[in-house]
């Protein structure tokens, strides 16, 4: 088994409406049975329709995602917590002070701050989706076993 593949991962961001649902969807698509994946926000807001749209472009449906906060977690024991915003990083660090859990900070741009045409806004969401996809693939890549000798 790849040592880089944790059994459970929690992605967290500020609102659990764009970045963390995207990351959750990508990791679930890559490892549907091997890793338990969840996501939360410091605060909650309904999943962003533009996030749903750009994820649908790559064949991942996050339309049924229900936003939740750290307080809504039924189980807070994760092998790895990946925070995607500074605010979520602070909350994750506070939450894990007394747990054996790794916390990684992947500072990820918030595409909701982009103004402009629909296409300009979609482009920003695609950039975030593609950034997260690359980070997740790099971080959780399966490496071939090295033969002894």
Automatic annotation (TrEMBL):
Q: Which SUPFAM superfamilies match?
A: Phosphotyrosine protein phosphatases I (SSF52788)
Keywords attached to this Swiss-Prot or TrEMBL record, sorted alphabetically, are:
Arsenical resistance, Oxidoreductase
Q: Give the top-rank taxon of the lineage listed in the UniProt record for this protein.
A: Bacteria
Asked whether the keyword Oxidoreductase is assigned, the reply is yes
The record's Pfam families line, in alphabetical order, gives: LMWPc (PF01451)
GO MF entries:
arsenate reductase (thioredoxin) activity
State its Enzyme Commission number(s).
Answer: 1.20.4.4
Residues of the Phosphotyrosine protein phosphatase I domain:
7-142
| Database matches in Gene3D superfamilies | 3.40.50.2300
Among InterPro entries, the record links this protein to: Ptyr_pPase (IPR023485), Ptyr_pPase_sf (IPR036196)
PANTHER family membership = ARSENATE REDUCTASE
> What's this protein's name?
Arsenate reductase ArsC
Organism placement in taxonomy: Bacteria, Pseudomonadati, Pseudomonadota, Alphaproteobacteria, Rhodospirillales
């Amino acid at each position: 088994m790849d040592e880089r593949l944790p059994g459970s991962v929690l992605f967290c961001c500020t609102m659990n409406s764009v970045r963390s649902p995207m990351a959750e969807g990508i990791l679930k698509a890559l490892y549907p049975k091997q890793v338990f994946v969840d996501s939360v926000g410091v605060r909650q807001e309904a999943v962003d329709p533009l996030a749903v749209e750009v994820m649908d472009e790559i064949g991942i449906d996050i339309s049924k995602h229900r936003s939740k906060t750290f307080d809504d977690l039924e189980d807070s024991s994760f092998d790895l917590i990946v925070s995607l915003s500074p605010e979520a990083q602070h909350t994750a660090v506070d939450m894990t002070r007394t747990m054996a859990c790794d916390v990684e900070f992947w500072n990820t741009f918030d595409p909701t701050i982009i103004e402009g045409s629909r296409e300009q806004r979609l482009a920003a969401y695609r950039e975030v989706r593609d950034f997260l996809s690359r980070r997740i693939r790099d971080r959780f890549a399966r490496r071939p076993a090295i033969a002894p000798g």
